[in-house]
Amino acid sequence: MSNGIHVELAVSACEGCPVAALSSSTVVEELRVDSADDRVEFVADDPPDDPPSGLDLVEFAGRTHGRYEIDCERAATDGGVAVDAAGGIAVDATGDVSEADAAETESSPDGDDGICRGCSCGGLPSAFANFPNSPRHTEMVDGELRVSFVLTGHEELRAIVDECEAAGLDVELRRLCVDRGRDSDADDRGGTVVPVDIASVTDRQAEIATVAAEKGYFDGGGASAAEVAAEFDLAKSTVSEHLRAVTADVFSQLFGDGDGT
């Protein structure tokens, strides 16, 4: 049995998303994306005093159970063409639309219903339907959709990110936990799980490290630092320094005392 990783990703939601709006004032938990029916279902800790329009809400045992239908589709991830629910807008696999059509598909409520149309939220069903693993937990926090997975490694993480991006969703890594394995001093409930804090990694370092990982730089026989540098039109020494900083930061947390020091 191989050791896995636990990741938490932040997935974009449009400004018109009613659940995102609700989360600014009410804790939203147990959020689920129904990819078969293009529906978002959720549970809120407290009944909202002034809920956004477009939500079907039911109170039970002091908690609010709700849902809303996503009234649009995004480009299919297999290169097909998607048409919005009204049958008016054709979108190719790159997400390109005409200038006139783009004006009609901006992120905004649909009339008085408050339902997302032609926006990033429409990509949720197609992305969730094609994830290699089901999320362990999904929640909406202050307008940000956070999705957690337990994965076998980088390849599955890359596949999830690819599905999000293909569906028109922005996605960022928020948290990564690595299991260093069980040792003789660990109790019987599990191994030594180390949270990897990437807050100190700059956006540029993360960008270079991502391309390096995709090209197999960290694997035997993969791309060299020079080949990675060529992707960014940078000097080999510059890329090597960026990658050294990232690996030093991550490795000190994984194999040091766990806090990056």
From TrEMBL:
Occurrences of domain HTH bat-type (ranges): 202-250
Listed name of the protein: Helix-turn-helix domain-containing protein
Keywords: Transcription, Transcription regulation
UniProt KW Transcription keyword: yes
Biological source species: Halorubrum trueperi
PANTHER family cross-referenced by the UniProt entry: DIMETHYL SULFOXIDE REDUCTASE TRANSCRIPTIONAL ACTIVATOR (PTHR34236:SF1)
InterPro entries: HTH_bacterioopsin, WH-like_DNA-bd_sf
